[in-house]
Amino acid sequence: MMKRIFSTFLLCSLAAFARNAGDPTETHFSFADTAKDYQLNIRAQLVDSVAMTNLTNAPTHYDNSMSVRLFLDGQFTSALWFDARVKISTDYTNRDIAFNYYTPIEGIPFNKQSENKRTWDLFAANVNYQLKPVRLMAGFDYLEWGPARHNHVILRGERNIYRPWQDSSSRIFDPAPTPYFGYQFAIGPVTYTQYAAKLFEKKNAGKYMHAHRLDFALPKNITLGLSETSIYGTTTEPAGTNLNEDGDSTGREFEWAYVIPFIPYVFQEHLQGDQDNISLAFDVSVKTIPHWEFYGELLWDDMKSPTSMFDDSWWGNKWATSVGIARDSLRFANALWEGFVEYTRVEPWVYTHHKGGGYSYRSYAQSLGTDLGPNSQEIHAELSSTFAFVKATLWAGAIAKDTAFGGNITDMHGPEDSTGKKFLNDKTTLKYRELGGSIGISPWSWMSFRTGYTRFFGDYEGFRATATGSLQW
Asked: Residue 203 CA to chain centroid, in angstroms?
């Protein structure tokens, strides 16, 4: 197997590789009537990737992943359209693969084929029906809100960023899709969107999320967003393990009152017993200056008041933010340049809940917001240049992650725990810097390649080299 991994790595490294293998954009199989009221597009992709990771005090790891991806999209009428995709993967590694028992708290399920091989799959699908003035939506897909380009603190959708602490074969760190239904309608410059979704924390224990959002399209190319989420579910911890009086042996079912439009969740929660995990979020995107964007996201998680953001005497004053500035579409030296700088800060206990896993801001062991988790921060800068079919990207970042109590999304604050909080305690915080780059090439619509290298400095020391190639039809 090792020879196979090395040969794949060598073969892929001979060429520059595309930034993102992504979905194939060209359709070679399409069926439609003459008026194109009914249309079906079929695409397929074969992706092979290899990664070599060498971190301090750990042996060098080699990971090879091959996947077959199928895509289906189209429309049945001009008002009804759909999209579906599936990924079937086989992973090889030189490390031992842990057993997976198909429980959501272990992440995305996989089949262990041998000590060094596993198989797994993911699918996503959605359907939309435009029933003027309302758009109806349903699917098993990813939900993403906010303008951030690196770390979404509200809903991150399908976005996945490699972190050194992910260097493990015990879990698949890709985010998981979620089943949902919802609706959307626009009134002038205002758009209202609402979702009701099922999350996964424990087998046969219901966990649900409701999310609604107002988007305001303002003059000067400014967009404001205001959103709320509500998460609740059946108790997932063993009886007697949660010392909070209201956090033990509770069964929950779907709350239909949250589906009503325009009513703030914080009001509904009080009428239903003040028992759910409510968060409020704001985001803004300013594109007044051509080719420039100033953006920000702010998540308030169970805070007493806006001024309590700066009060560390109460652990429940939880908030997270991502702010950034970006420059796009800059023509220089016959190339197209773009870049951004972004800062993210997540306070202690954000995304957690004192009632445990049934109320935490996660599904399949992955945060619905930024994967940094609570009590963390990151500053990230990225610059890319595209010339013809070649794209080069450079990035640099500094990350800090506190490992103390309140720094993990599974932590539960108890009645006897300290009421204060400490952001990034020097004694328990891991800090590292990263510097990396990638080169990609997409010479034809049916082929793309990418290779990348990242160097880590600090509490995580070492490097990670990757190479990916894809064929699509």
From this structure: 22
How many other β-carbons are positioned within 10 Å of the β-carbon of residue 415?
Answer: 10
Distance CA 354, CA 412 (A): 5
In 3D space, the residue among 429, 419, 470 whose CA is nearest the CA of residue 448 turns out to be: 470
Q: What is the pLDDT of residues 374-432, one digit of tens each?
A: 999 999 999 999 999 999 999 999 999 999 999 999 999 999 999 999 999 999 999 99
- Give φ, ψ of 266 to 5 degrees: -65, -30
Instruction: Verify cis geometry, omega within 30 degrees of 0, for the bond prior to 177.
Output: no
pLDDT tens figures, 1-32: 444 444 443 333 333 323 334 566 666 688 88
Distance CA 304, CA 314 (A): 9
What is the Cα–Cα distance from 300 to 278, expressed in whole angstroms? 9
* 254: phi then psi, degrees, rounded to nearest 5: -60, 130
Angstrom distance (rounded) from CA 392 to CA 252: 50
Terminal alpha carbon distance of the chain? 28
**379 three-class SS:** strand
Here the tokens at position 399 are 């990350």
**DSSP secondary structure string for all residues of 320-331:** EEEEEEEEEEEE
| Per-residue exposure over 153-167, b if at least 16 CB sit within 10 Å of its own CB, e if not | bbbbbebeebbbeeb
Whole-prediction pTM: 0.91
Q: Which one-letter DSSP state was computed for residue 238? A: P
Tokens for 288? Answer: 């007044």
Cβ-contact 433, 260 below 8 angstroms: no
Cβ contact 36:8 at 8 Å: no
Give DSSP secondary structure letters for 86-136: EEEEEEEESSPPPP--S-GGG-S--EEEETTEEEEEEEEEEEEEEETTEEE
Half-sphere exposure of 191 (CA within 13 A, CB side): 10
Cα(187)–Cα(193) distance, integer angstroms: 12
